[in-house]
Every structure is written in C-alpha cells, then in structure tokens.
Design brief:
The protein is mostly helical. The chain contains four helices and no strands.
C-alpha cells in the first residue's frame, strides 16, 4: 500500500540515466570523428583508438569541408594568409586541451548516466525496504494490541 508524500519517478530517472549514457557515447564518437577528420588534413594527430564512425549531420559536413583542402597538401587547412596563420597558432596551441576536454566531457556524461541509473535502482530498493519495515511495525502494533496481526521477529525481540 503506497504511502502519501513525496514520490520519485524512478522509471524516468532510470530512463534519463540511459539517455545520458547514450549521449556520452554519441559525443565521444562525434569528437573522435572530428579529430580523425582534422587529422586527415594534417590539422591534428588522429585519435589513439581506432577510427570512429562519423555520425550523420554537422560533423560530416565539417569534416567534408576540411577535406576539400586536401588538394593544397603543403598548406595548412586554415590557409597561409595572415588571418590563417594567426588562427593556426591559436588552434595548435589549444587543440590538445580541446580534445582532452571533449573526451573528458564524454566520459562525464556517461558517468552521470550510470549514476542516475544507480540512483533509481537504489531508491526503489530503499523504498521497498522502508515499506516492509512499516508493514512489520504496523503488524507488531496490531499483534500487541490484540487486534490480529502475527508474531514477527520484531515482536519476539521485545
């Protein structure tokens, strides 16, 4: 018999945990596809793992745009004019941290998803345990008052 009070929608919590884990995996694949696309035009080193499968959408368009520079193999993809050189200096200085941050974010999204799923499971188990304790206490009170109930281990201890 459910009690009145605050109720937690553990099914939604668990479902959102799964969604976060999926988001982390998709973000990791997109980040790897971006890095591998940039590596294909010599704009960075490839990912340490195997090549990621590119997700349809913006990543593919970006990678395709970068690879159109392939016919200018001796020139960086951002060009060799003044603006391109300045961009290249800034980009090269930040790219390692950028990829580390992207990988870290993907891992943290996955971790959050796992934590939400665990939270839902633990909350359900805790609620079930508390409900059973309350049932036992009510039964013991009824038994002690002579209103029925059955003798339980809690009554035997008293």
């Amino acid at each position: 018999m459910p009690r009145e009070g605050i109720r937690t929608d553990t099914q939604s919590l668990s479902r959102e945990g799964t969604n976060f884990q999926d988001l982390g995996s998709r973000f990791a694949a997109a980040a790897a596809a971006l890095q591998n696309g940039l590596a294909s035009v010599n704009a960075c080193a490839p990912t340490s793992g195997g090549p990621a499968t590119a997700q349809p959408g913006q990543v593919d368009g970006f990678v395709q745009g970068l690879t159109s520079f392939a016919d200018k193999a001796d020139m960086p993809p951002w060009g060799d004019d003044e603006i391109g050189e300045k961009f290249g200096i800034a980009y090269e200085g930040l790219q390692t941290g950028m990829f580390e941050s992207m990988n870290h974010l993907a891992q943290e999204l996955t971790n959050i998803g796992g934590a939400l799923s665990s939270m839902a499971k633990n909350h359900d188990e805790n609620e079930s345990f508390n409900e059973e304790l309350i049932r036992q206490q009510e039964n013991d009170i009824d038994f002690a008052a002579g209103n029925g109930g059955t003798e339980t281990h809690m009554t035997k201890m008293a």
